[in-house]
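ok trying this again, last paste got cut off
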Amino acid sequence: MTETHSGGQAAVAALRDEGVSHVFGLIGSATMEMFDALYDAEEVHFVGVHDERTGTHMADGFARASGRAGVILAGQNGPGATNLVTGLAQAKAAYSPVVSIAGSLASGHVYRDAFQEVDQQALFTSITKKTWTVPSADRVAEIMREAFRVAESPRKGPVQVNLPRDVLAAQTPMTAARMPERYRNRSVPAGDPALIADAAALLLGAERPVIVTGGGTKDTEGHDAVLALADTLGCPVATSPGHGDAIPASHPRNAGQMGPRGNPVASRLVREADVILALGTRLGFNSTFYTHDNLNPEAKIIHVEIEPTAIGRFFDIELGIWGDAPTVARQLRDACEGRAARAEADRWMSEFQTERATFLAERDAAAVETSPLQPSGLFKALRSAIPADAAITMDAGTMCLQATDALVYEHPKSLFTPLDFGLVGFSFAAGLGVKLAMPERPVISLMGDGGFGMTLSELSTAVDHGINTVTVVMNNQCWGAEKAYQRDFFDGRYIGADVSSPPFDKIAELYGGAGFRAGTTAEVGEALEAALACGKPAVIDVAVDPDALYSFRRDSFKHRGG
């Protein structure tokens, strides 16, 4: 007699086959068979969350930090599923491999205006790489395997699996476990040798070469290959915004993040370079605003991307190479090895290093350390206090945008941001996922008071599961970016810009965590040291000057003459 199990048990068996260690989720009646199967899956740790959106951010952070798919399970169809939307849209913008699973309406109730009915197939199609609604219990394992395969294939991204109630309840024959290596591609493309030779010739002939790298180096931890190439060429390396951890901050060739969200030194390099090697970066919005204001229009661009449709998408290129960033970097290094000394290129590098050292020294000297606390003083204090091996998560908003290039990222996978989607309310929850993926590293999450107010219920999740991150709430009592725009372009006609918040340190204590307050740069350092040592999830409420506002997107309001 053939042994059977339910569709819910088949789904959990598929998670086991994939080696899933954590599932984030919120229990609901639509997926009870799956939750019941998770009860017996001792190797899969279930992290119960308070909202499906924040649970998706946790899965996103886990995925980015671990390099493996993060899993979110919405137990309820309808509202449980719709709560996933913001998190999945964020994951898609960041190319983060999230496998999202949601209960779905029983097949016989579809198109009858049933309780909690929504067309989940249509809902998720535009915000995922692919969405499936499983038609029968005997297809559960097959589609779960395909979901992981699609999510983890370059360019990575989120997927959605809808599991109807009747499919989860139905019995289906048990099948033997299949290990991912049996049905998953693990190879990466190398660059075409002829194009590698042409690119090497361009780079060796350049007087002002620069490498711009991003997620393709960061996500593969391929910094050694990129830096070996930079050493061979004798050129500086700039990183795209949000990927300042692609190469170690202390490396002498590191210029920091470039473009409108970056620093003036890295940005100047890219505006003046005669050859730009865009290595594992799209040269997209946050790097360029799609204009040549941040990119030399005369530069010859060599564009290396693992996603062929990204090559030359926004700017004309001299050469396009389809390939994995560190693999192509190694190929180019071999092709450029033994270069002759080039006086102009060496002078370009030397001038950059002098300018970079001056910029960093002036940044520290210019930091305002008076009270009320200014952003520059806060960031200087954090630079001194944050451990070198820390992972840092950011939110959107003006304070975090200023912090992106103001902190130090010494190790791969140290910076996690929502820059591509511009999402407020991401950082704290994402940090919980990052911590579970990298428990040996301290995790520090930066948020504004508005964003933290959206997500503070997950303090309970952090306490219940012992996820000891430190959240620094930069409390300026307003929606800073929008208030800056109202000040600068709408004559200070403020509406909806101010935020009233409780003392977040006390809130953390009420949840069972640890709370700290800081109002000076010295207090920031002391509080961070204590928070990291307290052995609990910790929140530091930092009072920041509400008038220290900055308009990041001035280009958006050119029509107003500001």
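PB: full thing came through this time. The chain has three domains: 4-182, 193-358, 368-560.
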